């Protein structure tokens, strides 16, 4: 990387590292629930809380980050473990985004770099705390950076498929899709046989996982709602993130800023749709163009179709199609990167990174409000209501007093990883818990705490 290019990358790295480390806790919506589960898993390895929680006895996708947090909790306090994992993601995402931008266009690598930061690496799932999914995006990026021959090497096939399974099932399926396309087009089926162990893990998981509940009846159905919901989901590719906090009434300036952010997201979505139409979909109206499709472009078309076809709620997961959108966008940008339309439009779309930087700086400016939410968590206060393009950095602030030893252990909110609440476990039993505020063992007599209904319905797959 040349020095002039380094100065284009460093500001993004510094701003994003500060955004997650300056606040009193990592301000990613669901992330602190996963940190809590890593903390509990470490307690179980110490022999504590065995009457309240239990490990899964089958392989679980979407669990790699919790495993890393568990191991870190054995040697460092939970908040330190949380910051280490989140900081590692930021550093790795910046590095991989730069390399992928270089592959998309050497002439406009900086523009592609910032567009990738906005739409893929620091997107809505990142701020919503879907950490396993985001680490899966990193793994998918590493896969895309390999050449075709390297991707077909048996050892790489085994490592990428098993690794993807334990980060996120959709990323695993996206890599399998790429392998299937390559195998069918080039008749090299034997090279991809090492992917079968990951398929076996998935079958084992499906056979043993708890049955999904009935979809939330509050979600409306119908073509009009489905179309609007898909368009809204696509607009979430934009840079504006509406961070809503428990305490604080927005001022007139903040309200204006919010609607301006809505407009930026809609404008970016419109620009991306035009780019996809002009550089990708319109050329495919010629029959001969289908024979010249790259593997990445073909895979992106399949994933876009799945994004559109997925229902609002499926198997306890809200908006499962959204998970298809980001790999599809990465593959599409690879396919159109050198087109003339992309060369003209991408620099303008990349300017939206300025809005992302403002959102990140806003988190730092509101660190006092985030700290106040920890105090409210001591009192059992609730969390704010949903909002368009919303993300709630304080959604699981109630775990901070638990880490400090001021509050009792509560049940876990998402039973979608390798940790489960024991059936009929009594949370008001005596619990021996190691905390980050003292080295000795603390005896608590916690009171039962229910898992809020929003956490059960919001997202069960990180």
Q: What do you see in this structure?
A:
By secondary structure, the chain is mainly alpha-helical. It has one domain (3-213, 223-401). Helices cover 59% and strands 6% of the residues. It has 20 helices and eight strands. The chain has helices at residues 3-21, 31-45, 64-73, 78-104, 109-121, 124-127, 131-144, 148-151, 154-167, 169-186, 196-208, 223-235, 252-281, 295-309, 321-336, 340-350, 353-365, 367-378, 399-403, 453-458; strands at residues 53-55, 242-243, 313-314, 317-318, 390-391, 419-421, 431-435, 438-444. The strands form four sheets. It has a two-stranded antiparallel sheet. The radius of gyration is 22 Å and the shape is globular. The two termini are 33 Å apart. The model is unreliable at 378-385, 425-432 and 434-458 (pLDDT under 50).
Q: What structural keywords apply?
A:
single chain, 462 residues, mainly alpha, two-stranded antiparallel sheet, two-stranded parallel ribbon, 8 strands, 59% helix, EpsG family protein, transmembrane helix, transmembrane, membrane
Measured between the Cα atoms of the first and last residue, the distance is 33 Å
Secondary-structure-derived class: mainly alpha
Count, helices = 20
Overall shape: it is globular
Number of domains: 1
Radius of gyration over C-alpha positions, nearest whole angstrom:
22 Å
Count of DSSP strands: 8
Strand order of the largest sheet: 1-6
Outline the biggest β-sheet.
2 strands, antiparallel
The average pLDDT score comes to 83
Please state roughly what percent of the residues sit in beta strands, choosing from under 5%, 5-15%, 15-25%, 25-35%, 35-45% or over 45%.
Answer: 5-15%
Helix content: 55-70%
Low-confidence stretches: 378-385, 425-432, 434-458
